[in-house]
Amino acid sequence: MEFRKLTASVAVASQISASDLPAIAAAGFRAIVCNRPDGEGPDQSGFREIEAAAREHGIDARYLPIESGKVGDADAARFGELMQTLPAPVLAYCRTGMRAATLWALAEAPNRTLPEIVAIGNAAGYDLTGLVQRIANGGKLPVDTAVASYDVVIVGAGAAGLATASSLLARERGLDIAVIDPAGTHYYQPGWTMVGAGVFEPATTARDMAAVLPRGVHWIKAGVAAFEPRRSAVVLEGCRVVNYKALIVCPGLKLDWNAIEGLPETLGRNGVTSNYRYDLAPYTWRLVRDLQAGRALFTQPPMPIKCAGAPQKAMYLSADHWRRAGRLEQIDVEFFNAGAVLFGVADYVPALMEYVKRYDIALNFGYNLSAIDGPGKRAIFSRAREDGSVESVTRDFDMIHVVPPQTAPDFIRVSPLADKAGWVDVDPATLRHKTYANVFALGDVANTTNAKTAAAARKQAPAVAHNVLAGLGKVHGEAMYDGYGSCPLTVERGKIVLAEFLYGGKVAPTLPTWLIDGKRPSRLAWLLKERILPPLYWQAMLKGHEWFARPELTG
Asked: Name one GO biological process term (predicted).
């Protein structure tokens, strides 16, 4: 990892993990400050994990979480107090280091000149010029002074964002496009289920962001602070402003680990794991391999979540491993689902129930994980009774796979783009914002009722690309998204129930049913998941090739 020195007593860094603490201690740091809220990214270690590791090395750890781009004067004052009271030198970190650098700059404003602060930031690799505008404007966001302007601005460089950028360029090479995302790594998240089953190696699901960005697209490596859609402006952290002719919003969603009491402290140890985090999927496989007997719990929170089938995919693959190893009879497998059904599209439930019976899985519906005691190996669930009261149910476990509640990112939920539930408010067919005609959204953050999967984003991206170009006057007609989503339900190693459906749960197979009958477990569907879909993702979807994804046009 890289430490960027600001002064002799303060340095900043991008996200650290518990495994970095030996190097941090060896570098002489005596305290660390976390400026990143837990749950912002799928590869993010929680603060409590890092705090425990810091304690082992005699390092003081403090938590001062700041939403991306939301550094306030009170936050800066608190940061300044920490710099005065913590033992030096101090390492402050967030996703990229920008929030930490901003906090330092605002805290130092009474003591240093603005040119000196900006120069120190530049030397460390952080552009703090936006703070000059902020201070000059009395704290107001300088939305009238943009640092850059583009034809199209895309917020989010995940599957949806990069696929849309490539689809745009495939249709109109001359577009000036900027993608805003602070992450340095792009993940093939559908592969994490396979990592948790020992099928894929973790490294095969990750690539440097710079290597997958479409050629010619500008990458703004920063977080978004706010949207000003009436002025066609996006405000970045550090108060920088970017203008656009068309805006595409697709930053994914937020994994709310802190919504479950006790979970952040025990993730990655005490038999507590989740395939929803890059660094924890290998731990899932280790637990599955090592469990000889006992009780294994698998949980699913209330909808919406990313890939609704993923919680039970982990369960089926684990149970299949125990069956093949001759240990399943010694392991009690239980599924705790906050919902009322096994899967939202009824046509696929009979095939799944066959595996529930084969693995002797106990199904518990209406149970929501509310707390977890990792050292005590106890999970606490809340369940609504028929009379409206709520009961608490405790289960002991030897292993538990947890899926956290999921929401739209904080900067989305508080923005003028959001509906009452916090998701970006778009027309479900055109994916155009219902209020702002030059704003579109796709992927997990949109308030559409389709499954939140990469397969859905693959179908949405060409529709958004066409409609953006239509709004810019470069093409005619309107592209329609039909709600397509796909969930390859890995029911055993070597077989998959390939669920494909449209809005309303209408079954919609891509291939002829004589080739793959999605309502039955299929070896060919497994081959598709294991061998075909990863290269299709990297080499086709992210590069603007739209095989089986061309949108329907009207008008």
From this structure: sulfide oxidation, using sulfide:quinone oxidoreductase
Domain with 283, as residue range(s), is 257-405
Cβ-proximal residues to 218 (8 Å cutoff; 6+ apart), any chain: 148, 150, 176, 177, 178, 179
User: Distance (Å, rounded) from C-alpha 476 to C-alpha 158?
Assistant: 28
Separation of alpha carbons 102 and 117, rounded Å: 10
Instruction: Give the active site residue among 34, 94, 250, 307.
Output: 307
- Is position 141 within any domain? no
- Does residue 143 fall inside a structural domain? no
Q: Are residues 227 and 347 in the same domain?
A: no
**Is the Cβ–Cβ distance between 176 and 243 less than 8 Å?**
no
Query: In angstroms, rounded to a whole number, what is the distance separating the alpha carbons of residues 497 and 526?
Result: 9
Provide the CATH number for the domain around residue 485: 3.50.50.60
CA–CA distance, 54 with 33 (Å, rounded to integer): 11
Distance CA 398, CA 189 (A): 26
Q: Is 487 among the residues known to form the active site?
A: yes
94 catalytic? Reply is no
Query: 405, 421, 450: which is the final residue of a domain?
Result: 405
pLDDT in tens, 49-65: 999 999 999 999 999 99
pLDDT tens for each residue of 272-320 = 999 999 999 999 999 999 999 999 999 999 999 998 899 999 999 999 9
Contacts of 263 (CB under 8 A, 6+ apart): 257, 272, 371, 372, 402, 404
432 & 389 share domain: no
Same-domain status, 287 and 378: yes
Place of tokens 């010619």: 216
Say if CB 483 and CB 503 are below 8 A apart: yes
Are 19 and 45 a contacting pair, CB within 8 Å? no
Given 34, 94, 250, 487, the catalytic residue: 487
